[in-house]
Amino acid sequence: MIKYLAYILIISVIVTFIPITISIYYPPSSQTYPIGRSIEKDLAIATLDQDGNPVLIYISRGFSATILDTEPMGGYKYYIDIRIMDNINNKKIIERYERYLIALPKQTLLKYSGVMEWSKVQQFLIMIHKTKYIDLSKNNKIDYGKARSIASQKELRIAVILILKKNTKLSDLLMYGRFNYNLSNVISNGIKHNFTANALLNDILSRLINFYVYMVSSITPDIHVWIRMSTVLLIAFILIGVDYYRDPSEYTWLRRLIKRIKRSKSNSISPPS
Amino acid sequence: MSSTRSFLKYFNRSGLGSLNRIIIHSTYVLGSKALPIYAVSALFTVLFGLAVIYRVYYFISSFLTIFIVLVEILIVGVGSSVIDELREGTIQVYLASGLSRTEYIWSWILAVVIYPSIAIPLSIIIPVIIINPDILFTEIRRYGITISPYMHMYVYALTIQLLLHMTWSIGIGIVKKNKSLAWLTVILLTIVIPLVSSIVTAFMSFVSSPYYMGRFTYSRTLSLIYAPYSPLLSISVLQGDDPLYDQYVFLSLSIPSIIAFVSIVLFTYYVKKYLEV
């Protein structure tokens, strides 16, 4: 009986190699759940810095509740994948592009879209740099457990600071092929309450950058898989060993193996000179 | 009390020797019968390994409930050799060589009831333990709703179902000394009775208004009807968003466990009377 149970363990371990080998060559596609598809922008500001460079600042709506509401399926490792999609045609106009995941206190009220003077923008820049949690330009994937623990205490938001070159034209940003205006001029006109410039900037701000948050799961065989596999095999061989001492006649193959090992050992010992 | 005392007396007199004889005879029986069980186990390991790796969670519940019908028919085919031995009189050879009727029946229970009921669930558990053991004890949920009970519950339900069905079908086969009855019992238990139960429950829930159904919704009623003879189906029909989900899962597993235990006891004490040629 024990022999047959041990054999089932060995067969199961050996046969498990088949799905594992298949998964190495054809890895399972990571399953993606869009948990906050195209997150709204609570703050979108266009301004000019002290050097006259156009600066665009974005802070997304908080998505802590969406993370907390999402129940992961059991048994798999999850991470939050934050993707920031921009519609910048000409990447050469980018002077500096900072992307952060920030953790603001819950119930922080942010709601603004339009132009603002550089002096007033400073408070938002300080807030972003003080509350930044992860630099998304280096790593845009966050462990789900970490994200969940922060989301329970604070409001997670995405912040973007985009500093462009002075000579940036509207056609460099979106598909404004016919608007060959200089962005700095449009922003300075907007600060002076020019209605057309403000309308144009609002359109650019709403369409230039979009935020997406995905929950991605992944599974791949790692070192633990091989450790668990050898543990099960070890248990099976211990069972066989115990049962062998109960009744060696049931294990003819093991007896032959032991005899062969003994014979090879006795052959390898050289006769005394 | 008297039965317990007689059992203890019997065990004291011939306890370990008897156990050894049971193991030796069951090993002998399995020597020619283990191959189909190895084949089924290997198939289960590959399929469940792939299901876990590629996250085909629905496969686990649907495949188990459907494919287990074929597996049970196969095991009854393997186990019904005891009925052949009974009809042909081969049993007399074993009984004359010092094997008591209790030992003989227990060696068959070990070989064709208990061994497959452990081996097949093991072939499901092993790939899961190797690939990702968390799945065994994690509720499979999607968007906050339980879509499937814990996998260790499925495996437990499978073990109990195999124990129940094998005991009943082989027991009835031995009592009536008819192999076809064993086949018929397993087909009734796995296909016909569940089908009739679901039709009757559907009719009941259609005819009666929600006021009369009360707490007994369609899935709850069906789960309770399935529970005594098919724990796998019983836990499969329960709905994940049911507020009394845990209580009904407990009932689905505990009722058949008690029945399986009682069935094996009855099998030992009652069926051995019919071991005469």
| Helix percentage range of chain A | 40-55%
Give start-end ranges of low-pLDDT stretches of chain A. none
Please report the distance between the alpha carbons of the first and last residues of chain A: 50 Å
Q: If you average the pLDDT of chain A, what whole number results?
A: 85
Provide the low-confidence segments of chain B as ranges: none
Q: Provide the spatial order of strands within the biggest beta sheet of chain A.
A: 6-2-3-9-5-7
- Quick one: how many beta strands of chain A? 10
The chain pair with the largest interface is: A-B, 36 and 42 residues
Instruction: Report the principal-axis shape of chain B.
Output: globular
Properties at a glance:
heterodimer, A: 273 residues, alpha+beta, 6-stranded mixed beta sheet, 4-stranded antiparallel beta sheet, 9 helices, 10 strands, elongated, B: 277 residues, mainly alpha, two-stranded antiparallel ribbon, globular
Polypeptide structure, described:
The complex is a heterodimer of chains A (273) and B (277). Chain A is α+β, with helices and mostly antiparallel strands and 273 residues long. Helix content of chain A is 45%, strand content 26%. Chain A has helices spanning 2-25, 64-69, 118-131, 144-153, 170-173, 183-191, 195-208, 223-246, 252-268; strands spanning 31-34, 41-48, 54-60, 77-86, 94-104, 112-115, 132-135, 141-143, 155-164, 209-218. In chain A, α1 packs antiparallel against α8 (223-246) and α6 crosses α7. By secondary structure, chain B is an all-alpha fold. Helix content of chain B is 80%, strand content 3%. Chain B contains 11 helices and 2 strands. In chain B, strands 1-2 form a two-stranded antiparallel ribbon. Chain B is globular, with a radius of gyration of 21 Å. At the A-B interface, α1 and α8 of A face α1, α5 and β1 of B.
